[in-house]
Design a protein that fits this description.
It is built from 15 helices and 31 strands. By secondary structure, the protein is of the alpha+beta class.
Length: 726
């Protein structure tokens, strides 16, 4: 694999440790504590005008962050019964949950050694833990003395804090302790003993000190490339924004967090945080190659984010086929002991980012970390939804009852804890039917994955050649990892469903998944028109191209071709063109006029974070195919031995079969990569599928394209060569 694009290189600033030890001050200065609607940090505000405090409330449910009133009612009923009592006992014994606790508000909180100020952020995280613990004791016991203690702590901080400072680590403080402090405030908002003016001042502190830091981090990442920061940096700031949005009744803030979760540029967005999904829906978390303290922290932080959204009617838990559960199951399994001192193994693919961390294996540093975060995951997916989450369940039961929120890699309280008490639900009566069935083509075989049922003892796979059946059983008694591979199939279209065996009988069938085997044409653009802007798709699959900018019709290699002028011309293909494609072949006749680096023959993607592309010449001077779900430095590539020749027609093709990618020029193999673990479907939804244009601000292609073809499946070398005479 050649060196990544030097144009995208960034200075090192990983976790703030590689920056000069300068002060990273977020001073209030003009940020007067004017309430949620009165922030003067205008540059950090969403486009939507903030809602003023005291205005008519939105549709937010209150209390409605990590806990709702229904949750508190359940806790009051359960706290004296096991296993809830064990967690309650840990709460009442914790020194943070005592009336004798003495808070220590600071005017400026420092996190990170800036070489000038001593770090004092432990004052904040201890007081946040105390405010939450005392609020929880009041909500369950009804003893107002604990409510008064929580209010005392929060009033002390809102009357004292003016800034969060230090190094870039201050942004971690604003994120982690921001979402936690907002939760304490949300729990206490209904307490009659909390003066309205004091509550408004607390909201103002959260809105005007914490939120601007959270927002600024997500939109700038300290002016670094988006993949520089680990996922947890994004996620804690997303969680803080969401929590402050609910606390302050600001829909724009809540929406900001939800939008970033789904489509943000950084590693905290769900598609990048859960970097790679292995068969059986084991989702490799972005920090898996780093260490297990941070890896498990990702589950704690994103779990909190999902729960807060859930309590406001937004299902982030289930987004993208339960992608968060994929990560939770992966991380839980990898940190559980299989036998003796041996941990379960999990699959791993190489991770790289702008800092060239190039992590090639799962990190065992800190393995077995027992963060108190698993009760939330287990109870949502199993006892709310009826899904099977065997590894999360095993971890939750292993550390039950959960105590307070220690378990940090740095000794702080990175999560609030007490999940057995706060999240514990009675076992669901029956499991859901298998769901989320997918069928991906890899190496010519059909690889199935699905979500299981809470009480299943085994699974049966059924296959049909007609949608809706009739189905024939092709595998049964499947246990363990929920994946099965159907190999040796003749070319054709197949339909699959899965059922589960449970103590009460077989479940209903899952959703139906379709797989197309062989090498049928997916898209065929002969570019034989003479006028108009539409390039018809001769495959019959409805994938036409649209000529854009300086694109025109000219004589081609075979009849006509499309000419691209090198400045504005390209061909746009339909969105989501290859979202259901695993193995593939893409081939075309190409006549290249120019000799500029990075001119694209094609580039399908969604921006500079997710794409698959073929360039006539890379910065190393050779033809190059690459695919990434993590920006330029995460590319998996195949390089030719030379650039595409200019001033003549050349036939180019790239094929993928499983992990084996091959590049062809004029029917001869020009390059190969046997570890191309990416595939088109892993890019997700793509809206920028272009011939002749790059996701980056690279030069447009200058030349002609003819007979552009996409096949499902990898054509053989002989079949690729035959395209030259087709």
């Amino acid at each position: 694999m050649t060196a990544p694009r030097s144009a995208h290189a960034q200075s090192r600033e990983q976790d703030g440790t590689d920056l000069p030890r300068r002060s990273f001050l977020y001073s209030l200065g003009a940020l007067a504590l004017a309430g949620c609607g009165g922030s003067v940090f205008e540059a950090a505000q969403p486009a939507q005008a903030p809602r003023l405090l005291g205005a008519t409330a939105t549709g937010f449910a209150h209390p409605g962050l990590l806990h709702t009133q229904a949750d508190f009612n359940r806790m009051m009923q359960k706290y004296n019964t096991q296993p809830w009592k064990g967690s309650w006992d840990k709460l009442t014994a914790n020194p943070h949950a005592q009336l004798s606790y003495v808070a220590s508000p600071q005017a400026v909180v420092y996190r990170g050694d800036d070489g000038v100020h001593p770090q004092n952020y432990s004052k904040l995280f201890n007081d946040v833990a105390a405010a939450y613990a005392c609020a929880l004791r009041w909500k369950i016991s009804g003893d107002s003395a604990y409510a008064d203690k929580a209010v005392q702590i929060m009033n002390g901080w809102s009357a004292t804090l003016t800034a969060i400072s230090g190094t870039t680590d201050s942004q971690l403080a604003a994120g982690i302790y921001g979402y936690e402090f907002a939760n304490a405030g949300e729990m206490m908002r209904s307490y009659s003993g909390w003066a309205a003016a004091d509550f408004i001042r607390f909201q103002g502190m959260m809105r005007n000190i914490f939120y601007p830091i959270n927002h600024d981090f997500l939109i700038r990442h300290n002016n670094t490339e988006a993949t520089h920061y680990w996922a947890n940096w994004d996620v804690c700031n997303m969680a803080s924004i969401m929590a402050i949005g609910v606390l302050c009744d600001e829909q724009a803030l809540f929406d900001e967090a939800v939008t970033y979760f789904k489509s943000g540029a950084g590693n905290g967005a769900i598609g990048k945080a859960v970097y790679y999904v292995h068969p059986g829906y084991l989702g490799q978390w972005q920090e898996s190659g780093r260490d297990q303290g941070h890896n498990t922290l990702g589950i704690a932080l994103m779990g909190a984010l999902c729960e807060m959204a859930w309590n406001q009617g937004v299902d982030l838990y289930g987004y993208d086929n339960n992608r968060f559960l994929m990560a939770a199951e992966y991380v839980a399994k990898a940190n559980l002991i299989q036998s003796g001192t041996t941990y379960y193994s999990v699959p791993y693919v190489t991770y790289n980012n702008v800092d060239n961390v190039n992590q090639t294996g799962f990190s065992t540093a800190g393995i077995g970390n027992q963060r108190p975060c698993w009760a939330l995951v287990y109870n949502h997916y199993v006892n709310r939804k009826g899904l099977a989450a065997p590894w999360s369940k095993q971890f939750a039961l292993l550390i039950q009852p959960e105590g307070g929120g220690s378990g940090s890699t740095s000794g702080g309280y990175d999560q609030l804890g007490y999940g057995t008490l706060t999240c514990g639900l009675d076992p669901i009566a029956g499991g859901a039917a298998p769901s989320g069935l997918s069928a991906d083509i890899s190496g010519g075989a059909v690889v199935l994955s699905w979500w299981g049922s809470a009480y299943a003892t085994g699974y049966t796979v059924k296959r049909a050649t007609v949608a809706g059946g009739p189905y024939t059983t092709v595998a049964s008694g499947i246990t363990g990892l929920l994946t099965w591979t159907d190999s040796g199939l003749a070319a054709g279209t197949y339909y699959y469903v899965v059922t589960a065996s449970t103590p009460s009988g077989a479940t209903a069938a899952s959703n139906e998944a379709r797989a197309i085997t062989g090498t049928p044409l997916h898209t065929c653009l002969p570019f034989d028109a003479a006028s108009g802007a539409v390039a018809a798709d001769a495959s019959g699959n409805g994938h036409p191209g649209t000529l854009m900018g300086g694109a025109s019709w000219v004589a081609g290699k075979q009849a006509n071709a499309v000419a691209l002028n090198g400045s504005t011309g390209y061909v746009s293909l339909p969105a989501d063109l290859m979202t259901d494609v695993g193995d593939f072949t893409i081939a075309a006749w190409v006549y290249w006029n120019a000799a500029r680096n990075w001119e694209r023959i094609f580039d399908f993607g969604n921006g500079t974070g997710d794409y698959m592309m073929l360039t006539a010449r890379s910065n190393t001077g050779v033809l190059r195919f690459a695919m990434t779900v993590n920006g330029g430095y995460g590319e998996r590539s195949v390089n030719g031995s030379a650039a595409l020749p200019t001033g003549q027609w050349a036939h180019v093709a790239v094929t993928l079969s499983g992990k084996n990618a091959t590049l062809y020029v004029n029917g001869a193999v020009a390059g190969n990569n046997a570890d191309m673990f990416l595939a088109p479907f892993r890019l997700g939804s793509t809206s920028q599928n272009w011939i002749g244009r790059s996701q980056y601000p690279d030069p447009y292609f200058n030349g002609k394209i003819d007979d552009f073809r996409i096949y499902r499946g990898a054509l053989s070398a002989a079949a690729v060569a035959a395209l030259m005479t087709a």
